[in-house]
Specification:
The strands form 4 sheets. The protein has a 6-stranded parallel beta sheet, sandwiched between helices. The relative contact order is 0.15. Helices cover 40% and strands 16% of the residues. It has a domain of 205 residues: Rossmann fold (3-Layer(aba) Sandwich). It has 298 residues and is an alpha/beta fold. It contains 10 helices and 12 strands. Catalyzes the reduction of dTDP-6-deoxy-L-lyxo-4-hexulose to yield dTDP-L-rhamnose. Pathway: Carbohydrate biosynthesis; dTDP-L-rhamnose biosynthesis. Belongs to the dTDP-4-dehydrorhamnose reductase family.
Amino acid sequence: MSDIRWLVTGAGGMLGRDLCSVLAHSGENVTALTRADLDITDRDAVFKAVRGHDVVVNCAAWTDVDGAEAAEAAATAVNGTGVRHLATACAGAGSRLLHVSTDYVLPGDATEPYAESAPTGPVNAYGRSKLAGERAVAELLPEHGYTVRTAWLYGEHGPNFVATMLRLAAQRDTVEVVNDQYGQPTWSYALARRLAALGRSAHAGCAPAGVYHGTASGSTTWFGLARAVYALSGLDPDRIRPTTSSAFPSPARRPTYSVLHHARWTTVGLTALDDWHQTLPQALRRPTFTALAEASAG
């Protein structure tokens, strides 16, 4: 067991649960706080929670992208002001903060992977709310603040695209999936392991503060991911039919290109996450996904 005292906020979510599992398996000293345990918009509660911890990993967030369009102030209260509370508390306590952010802070119109230093330019309210959090971390924790952007996250412990595709297989003969948005399907458990490694490096003083891109390597479209999920789950991938984003209008505009570059990991002696083709089969062997696949096949 290391001597690091960890605090994980948003510990009841998909990534938070995986991170707590990774840390517990390594024998780490972890305080896991769900949304019911800690509302990060409550400044006094945040200061009390952070006290006595060396590394704080913020997995708490407003994640309803479409809902943020009609409630941007509420989304920013969590994703911006709440993160500012955490950063302020960490600055006072001398703690490292690892804050989980998103590709949505970028404009999403590139044709090659976004570098960690690429100019931001969110195209929706959710992205603006998350950018407010990133700026708070950079401003208040220039030496001890780490922003880890992720995207296209899937895992066992929450709603996600992979689980939805498997459920739809039991309900429909064919499923239409957009083929004009590009990204990097990222297994939450794989990201959790990388967050744990970064936290240890940060605590040891071996990791420079700033932005890191926590997505799988490689890229595909939602259509490509859905076909891979079916093929690996023993289902007919030809049941997945391509369509365009215009077939699924939504309140929030989505970026068309969410592929991120991962060069910064080498500065801490770590490699980028594996290619999504390698991690997806591992994830689909987990009980939650195998049960969904069996139900769909049956």
